[in-house]
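Dear U.,

For the methods section draft, I wanted the exact inputs and outputs in one place so we can describe them consistently. I've listed the two proteins in the order they'll appear in the manuscript figures. Please don't edit the token lines directly; just add comments below if something needs changing.

First protein:
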Amino acid sequence: MKKKIVAMLCVAAVACTTLAACGGKDSDTETQSAEATNGKTSGDYELNVDELVTSLCDYSAVPVTLTSSYEVTDESIQSTYESMLSLATGSYTEITDRTTVQDGDYVLVDYTGYLDGEAFDGGSATDQYVLVSDDNGYIDGFTDGLVGQEVGTTVTSDVTFPDPYTNNTDLSGKTTQFEFVIKGIYESKTLTADTITDEDVAANFSASYGVSTVEELKEYVKNYLTQYNDYYKYQETITGVKDYMIANCEVTVPDEYLQLRLNEYVEQFKERYVTSDYTDLEDYLAKTYNSTLEEAMTQWESYMSDTIKVELIFEKIAKEEGIEIDEDQYAQYVSSLVSNYSYEDEDAMYEGFGNGNKENGETYVRRLYLINSALDIVAADAKITVDESADSTESTESTESTESE
């Protein structure tokens, strides 16, 4: 459970640090932390990397051991290809010798979900083939009310959402009403590598992936796996480089700066996850992770300390290597931050990274650009080995991830 909380922090720290935010606290622990910083933000703090990084290890060939070779093999391509086919809808043939819906049927329906009599966002669709089963990819009980109903009728049934329901927290634990218009009963043709045709590919994968033949689909899978493996090989390399540098460099993290960054992360976390369904951060952590605030703060502080060490180390390396900002590449970097974090525009992004202070935000983002540039250079020169005891990579990423691309 603790691992999951830290993982959420990692997601928020994609840009090598955490996004900045500040504000009031919910608990005595947070209040004391806020008072200790005297209203300052991390953007107000001046860091001297020459003083804080007192020993920089040799970074010319950092040793990194990977858990996998990340090789894309014929076997991994075939496995992922077959997985995609097994999860695809295939094609449907209408059943005409009966009109009553049975468990295990596919039904063609229009449906609309209502909460307190009002249709809610994301709760409606038309001409959908839905499997009447608990294992149909929808929430439990979604199709229970269809069993025994007749084609051509409109059916309303109660459907209770799980709690929590992360896709839409407003629906967590709520009982809703779904209205189904039953248009027909169908059986599905399962797609297999031996039987799939170009027509099947066009019908099932053209809209999502832009492919219309079997060969194009296989090429798509190969390219996807290559990109997927390259990404995770890079991520594991980056993690290995960071861990090595933290362990072999001597870095001092100023207590006040650490507290500022920690406070800012806690505020961001609260803003993102602590909705009206929870009384405060402690309530959210207890209900979602069975964790106390003290346990979470301990994890977050440790991770934040390592994050700051990484920043200081690679800012020092950027200085040692004479890395400068390429304005064209920096513009692309800024654009990616605006897009990845769903900011309205560049100014909003700078304000977000600067705790509402655009100037501080731009200074910080420029610093991040140099840090990441140095990290990329060191990672590119790393001495890579593969743990022979680990399984060779069979990047059989599920089609669920493939289809969410």
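Second protein (the one for the lower panel):
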Amino acid sequence: MAKPTICVYLGANCGHDPFYAEKAEELGRWIGEQGCSLVYGGSKIGLMGILARSAQKAGVRVTGVEPQFFIDSVVQLETLDELIVTKTISERKVKMIERGEVFIAFPGGNGTLEEIAEIMSLLSLDLIRGLCIIYNLRGFYDPLKLQLDRMTEAGFITPENRAKYHFCADIDEIEELVRTQDFFG
């Protein structure tokens, strides 16, 4: 069985705590150790750059997807195996979703939240297949988990759809989840 392409959503900023940079590097290394490929936003800066360089060092194929206005700002990682250039952020999201099979939201900002929310919606509507993982490092996404649970309790999300969004606190939980979903055979 072919190894899945892992799509990671994360920021072009590193945040204030170096812990997140360490964990982005660990995630990239883990993707490589699993023999998977990576698709991500394509930037060389912040957590995005750390993740991509770590995955490359681990020997996996790395695809970046950048809108032209980011290319014009020269923030793309020059050593990518493949760079897909889009006109808009919306097109970028579509290309990333087309390539991904496992979708991971690393701690990040507005863009990360928007991207993983779209994955949750598409999974709920059965418009895509895949695995949605919210990487809940140090409880970063606890408020989102509480909100999704509240929405489920209030009847706005079905329990079946809520079960499609997985919160993992560490890389071991991610690996176990991916293995139980038969992505590693």
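Candidate sentences for the figure legend, describing the second protein: The CA atoms of residues 10 and 108 lie 5 Å apart. The two ends are 6 Å apart (CA to CA).

Thanks,
Y.
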